Amino acid sequence: VKNKMPAPVQITAEQLLREAKERELELLPPPPKQKISDPEELAAYRTRKRKAFEDNIRKNRSVMTNWLKYAAFEENQKELQRARSVYERTLDVDHRNITVWLKYAEMEMRNRQINHARNIWDRAITILPRANQFWYKYTYMEEMLGNTAGARQVFERWMQWEPEEQAWHSYINFELRYKELDRARMIYERYILYLNYKLMAVKPVFSETFTLKHLSRKEVKNWIKYAKFEEKNSYINSARTIYERAIEYFGEDNLDEKLYIAFAKFEEGQREHERARVIYKYALDHLPKEKCQEVYKCYTVHEKKFGSRAAIEDVIVSKRRFQYDEEVKANPLNYDAWFDYLRLLEADGNVEQIRDTYERAIANMPPAKEKRHWRRYIYLWINYALYEELGLGDMDRTRDVYKACLEVIPHSKFTFAKIWLLFAQFEIRQKNLQAARKILGTSIGKCPKNKLFRSYIELELQLREFDRCRILYEKFLEFGPENCTTWMKYAELETILGDVDRARAIFELAINQPKLDMPEVLWKAYIDFENEQEEYDRVRALYRHLLQRTHHVKVWISFAQFEKGVDEGEMSLKRARKVYQEANKALKNSQEKEERLMLLESWQAYESELGDEESQQKVQNLMPQKVKKRRKVQTEDGADAGWEEYYDYIFPDEEAAQPNLKLLAMAKKWKLQQQDQAEEEQES
């Protein structure tokens, strides 16, 4: 090539391959039909084809397609002897090729060479006895020829090789087609015996789990088929016997729910509903729980169709019991599931089962010793004790339950006052007061709690044991001296008993405690106590004592209201006004202007009710001005966040506020002057 330059249009290798593939799909014109008109031409054609076949075989003897095409060609030429020769040569090459045997026998059958076909089938099943296609074809051929005895003989030869399940059923169906029920029954028996022998042979080799899972289910299916065969042919007693034999054969180790369901449905079909019910119950009692789901379902359907209302409810309860049992097995710490389970069992009324379930439930203690994990668990013990006491009336067992519960609780970390109180109340119901006191005393000694003290004191109050109440209150106050409620209840008890001095001493001890949870409530109770006793001087002393500790506006107002309420005429009014003046003076230096305003408003209301115009005007002059102001707002990190408006109060007696008040007064005066000028201009 002179021009070595690249072509303007380049073609890639991919395009070349694609084009070649597309041209392969183009339909080539069929070869012309060849008409053979004389024997010499036919002989030449056969010779040419045979030479081509032989050449292909010589190139690759192991390709069975060439052999089969060669044999098919000879068969089409009606050269059966030559075709047999080709098949025989093929079998010499590969005598284990199933396709070759099938083609060979089918050729003989197509050409009605029955004895030759039998000969080939016999050779095939002798060489390859595990090839089921040969046996099926052989028996089918004999049956189509009407040679029933021959087909039966072939089946018998096949059964000696212990084939799979389908082969046995083919034999049984063959006998049933010819109404040979006794023979079919004998085959079923032989098959079941064979399965038993097979199971025994496999057991030493494989594990028990494998045997149960892979063999027993197949056996159950065949037992059921055998029984249904007898039922179909109206041999009812025989079918029932087969089911019973199957249950006895499998025993309790290899039980299967399908067998029991089939047996129960059989009895249901014979209208033996009691028998069916007994079978279902036996299955539910003996089968593992995970296999009972389908049994429950079928049992429920049966009872809905044929059972009474009580029987239906019994089935539903049994099913729910199974579900709860599975749920608590999956998660033993699911106490809500235990509660539902026990509630269901208590409705059923089986005492031993209920007790056993309670024992199982309380055995599942929370793993962590934290009270939040024990809150639900402890109610299992409470329900157990209440069931024994109220449901069964077994008081000794109830007492044992409470004791066991108290032993389980880790009292060093936490306790449950509810358990101690329930135990004590139980003993009181049994009229065993000493035991109840001992229980409550133990609880206070081991793990003192406010609730335990209060309940013990309430018990002794109901029994009118006031000396015991005093001792308990003293112990209670040693345990929690900051509890104002306890101090007040103790003082209230002494007041009820008429011992005012003891009550006053208790209040004195209480207000002198260094730490109190609600001191304002305690002071109020003490003041109310003295007020009820009409010890007004003591009340004033208490107010003065309290004001030494705090200058809260509510204390001043309460003090003033007290002086106002004391019925001493003009003197009480002066004392109340003096309290207000002292309060105003004390709050003057306080930063809480709202409290001072609250005091002045209370004072103003007092003067409006009982004062004269002079006193009212005096209080009015003390009222502050409400002023709107602005101040900067800063965020937590110190950045400016803009301005906000707020209201401030400016009192007249504040020195720093005088210029502001003067400025406000001048502004107000100027505004009034402007308004007057505007009115004069309008009139003119």
TrEMBL record:
Q: Which residues form a coiled coil?
A: 573-600
Enumerate the InterPro entries for this protein.
Answer: HAT, HAT_Syf1_CNRKL1_C, Syf1-like, TPR-like_helical_dom_sf
Keyword presence, Acetylation: no
Subcellular location(s) of the protein: Nucleus speckle
UniProt domain Pre-mRNA-splicing factor Syf1/CRNKL1-like C-terminal HAT-repeats: residue ranges: 63-307, 395-544
Record keywords, A-Z:
Coiled coil, mRNA processing, mRNA splicing, Nucleus, Phosphoprotein, Repeat, Spliceosome
Q: What does this protein do?
A: Involved in pre-mRNA splicing process. As a component of the minor spliceosome, involved in the splicing of U12-type introns in pre-mRNAs.
Output this protein's name: Crooked neck-like protein 1
Please tell me the species this chain comes from.
Potamilus streckersoni
What taxonomic classification does the UniProt entry list for its organism? Eukaryota, Metazoa, Spiralia, Lophotrochozoa, Mollusca
